[in-house]
Amino acid sequence: MNDVQPSGPIDLTTIATGIERTNELLTRVLAEVATTPSTHAIFVDAGYVYAAAGRLVAGTEDRRAFELDAEGLIEAFIDKARMIFPDSRLLRVYWYDGARRRIHTIEQQRIAELPDVKVRLGNLNANNQQKGVDSLIRSDLESLARHRAISDAALIGGDEDLVSAVEAAQGYGARVHLWGIEAACGRNQADPLLWEVDSQRTFDLDFCKPYVARRTNPCQPEPYAEPGAAPGGVEAAGRVEVRFVGAQVAARWLAERGREALADLLPGHPYLPGPVDQELLVEAEGLLGISLRTHADLRRALRDGFWEHLRAQY
Questions:
Q1: Chain-centre distance for alpha carbon 108
Q2: What Pfam family is a match for this entry (predicted)?
Q3: Which CATH number is 35-214's, of 3.40.50.1010, 3.90.70.10, 2.30.40.10, 1.10.10.10?
């Protein structure tokens, strides 16, 4: 059997040129991959958050008995993720909740209007139990991981049914980090879920307390006001006044910390780091004489006024 011989002389120059071009292409691809920022997303099972935070802070899982400052809590989650994933950018926050016939409640509408937040709704049955939320979480986690849209997923929940969602995302190379809320007693997250994730983190009472407040009348919620609050309470504090107070606090903050601190703060717009947000809230409540803890619309106006003043000074 005769070996097949080449029909002509081998052109080493052509081969060398081809190899050089291939190496250049690989170099560009590797450089692009190296400079592409990692991306993370936060997946929040609202039913778990309400139940766990309510039990921990207010002593009950009944949503009618307490108010949750969802906006403030979401911003706290975003701020925590920014610290944990310093070299990663946020894709968005997914907020999973239940609603009758999947029609947004007023509170869910407000959450959906927040920047970088997407509300996904399952159904509520006759016993006010969520149906279909776990499948929504799995669908989003798997899809984002499959398309390489995220490298890390912070999952806030505790149901064992979420194990399949974690496995699906990990199968496409994403890392899944389970975040939970401290249990009043025992555990509020399933063991198989804890075993499956890449890392775990628990938020304690001090973290959750600013975002939960008991209602004075569970059947007919009323605005909460601190003792000695100004006449008219929260109802008398309009968005314009609260926005103006936000600007006042910003002026004091800038005078105390200077422009270097401002330059560090601006890249995070429209979000404030947790300590700055809490400082703003406490100082504003002192100036107004009322509590804003359970009034997301007024807290949003407060932050708007704070940012508006700071950005005008840069």
A1: 15
A2: NYN
A3: 3.40.50.1010
| Three-point CA angle 268, 272, 275, nearest 5° | 130
- Predicted confidence (pLDDT) per residue in 183-195, tens digit: 888 888 999 999 9
Backbone angles phi, psi at 91, to 5 degrees: -75, -60
Which helix (H) or strand (E) segment holds residue 153: the answer is: strand 152-156
**Residue 43: what residue type?**
F
For 76, 250, 313, the CA distances from 307, given in Å and listed in that order, are 17, 7, 10
In the numeric block, the tokens 């199968």 are attached to 171
User: How many angstroms separate the CA atoms of 92 and 118, rounded?
Assistant: 7
Both tokens of residue 21?
Answer: 């071009």
Q: What token pair was written down for 126? A: 């006759």
List CB contacts of 226: < 8 A, sequence separation 6 or more. 285, 289, 290, 291
**Is pLDDT above 90 for 42?**
yes
- Tell me, what amino acid is at 189? Q
Question: Mapping DSSP to helix (H, G, I), strand (E, B) and coil, where does residue 131 land?
Answer: strand
Residues 165 and 134 sit within 8 Å (Cβ to Cβ): yes
**Domain residue spans of the chain:** 35-214, 233-313
170-193 exposure pattern, b = at least 16 Cβ within 10 A, e = fewer: beeebbbbbbbbbeeeeebbbeeb
Average pLDDT, integer, range 80-84: 91
User: Alpha-carbon distance 171 to 142, whole Å?
Assistant: 9
Residue 92: in which H helix or E strand, if any? Answer: strand 88-99
Phi, psi of 159 (to 5 degrees): -75, 140
Q: Specify the higher pLDDT residue, 306 or 9.
A: 306
Task: Give the confidence band of 226 by pLDDT, cuts at 50, 70, 90.
Answer: very low
Amino acid, res. 6:
P
- State how far the Cα of 218 lies from the Cα of 238, in Å rounded to an integer: 25
pLDDT at 265: 82
Tokens at 131, concatenated: 């149906």
